[in-house]
Write the structure tokens for this entry.
Amino acid sequence: METLFALTNVDFAYGPDRPTLSGISMTLDANDRVALTGNNGSGKTTLLHALVGLNKPQQGEIHAFGRQRRTEKDFYEVRLRAGLLFEDSDDQLFCATVAEDVAFGPFNLGWPRERVAAAVDSTLARLGLSHSRDLSAAELSHGEKRMAALATLLAMNPAALLLDEPTNGMDQAHIDVLIQTLQDTEAALLIASHDHAFLKRIARRSLRLENGRIAS
Amino acid sequence: MIGQPDQTRFRFKPDPRALILGVGLWTILFVLMQTPRALALAGGLALILAKAVGASWRTLIRRMAALNALLIFLLPLMAVESFALSAWPWRLAPDRLILFAAVALRANAILILAQGLVGAMDMATLGHALVHLRCPPKLAHLIVFSARYLDLLRHEWNRLYRAARMRGFRMSIGLRTWRVLGALVGGLLLRSLDRAERVLYAMKCRGYQGRFFMLHHFRYTAADAVFVLTLALAGGIVIWLDRM
Ligand SMILES: Nc1ncnc2c1ncn2[C@@H]1O[C@H](COP(=O)(O)OP(=O)(O)O)[C@@H](O)[C@H]1O
Ligand SMILES: [Mg+2]
């Protein structure tokens, strides 16, 4: 099976004092569905950000989509193929309307306007968001914001989805749509979450972080 | 932030680009006009325009009250023969009074016009329209982003302020109030910087390389052409009256 991400002995620290990630080795294969668990502050968000090059490790290697990735330029391609759902959706919805936000990624992929418009429509419909396409994120509920942020990723047809606490602030109806969507997708999944009921329905294996190390 | 569309009442909705063009044109006219007579007429027309595109009386009156309160303070500065303590009692100079009236009318007219623009569209639409009018994309996107993030900033400010109030903070005139307010603003600034960094990350994650694209297209209709023409014509008449 194709390996999308492979990390070997990755160390990362935000400052000089103490490392946030130490000696992380892990892989994510195509079709893999992995739960990433651990207490608050154990480094889940930091790890997800490292996978797409927002945190550059001080030690160790990151291989992604067939190549070692080190520089900002290396990670450009990684980011187009792996969608990261941010912990706070307000960071991710920066356009004037939901539709513009969903169109942002596909336009950057260089798709022609018609294809972008079609992708926006079908993605919003798939997530039950068609009625909010012309709303601003400020007008959405927490759960709708979460789904809209997910839509911005799905519209780009990513090979992998890295989800940071996806069910946070969602009500059960949205969680059900989310579960259905994730079960249907062909993208590899790496999901940081505390929501064990949710993880049980999606993930096939799990990684547990403790103080920046992989415990199991 | 964006008002609910009012469907119960008819309201003329010009294409945002037409509105910006028309309002821009009129603002230039206001600056060019000199006589109170023409300015008063133009102000009346601006009021009709503002009402037609949906500005509310309440906000109009509130804004105008604030502006005119300021103008009253300027009155002695601008319209007396000699603004010196030794010249007390001050005497109004008729020619200067006319000048003052023109300034006051012009300020009010521009305010009404701007209110008409803001009443008719949200910041996001304004930003989009500006891009289509060949305004530098950087500037237009700044406007679009501030529309989105001003709202978040307000929420964050409310959160910080409420947290301070929960711990017994009350606004008053005193050093302590200023210190607490300073800390709150500092907190807001730090949060904004963090936020800006995370938004840039989010943009990079979706392949941002410095270029913006937009899905939204505006459509010019015959009504918009008539709208701009009418504004131009009315402006022409007022200018003619001004020069007469
Ligand atoms: N931008 C940052 N700067 C400095 N320290 C950070 C930053 N982000 C996270 N940390 C610290 O790194 C550790 C791991 O945080 P994080 O990855 O967010 O954990 P989790 O997502 O598992 O809750 C925490 O101790 C946190 O305080
Ligand atoms: Mg986290």
Remarks:
- Strands of chain A lie at 3-12, 21-29, 33-37, 59-64, 67-68, 82-85, 160-164, 188-192, 205-210, 213-214.
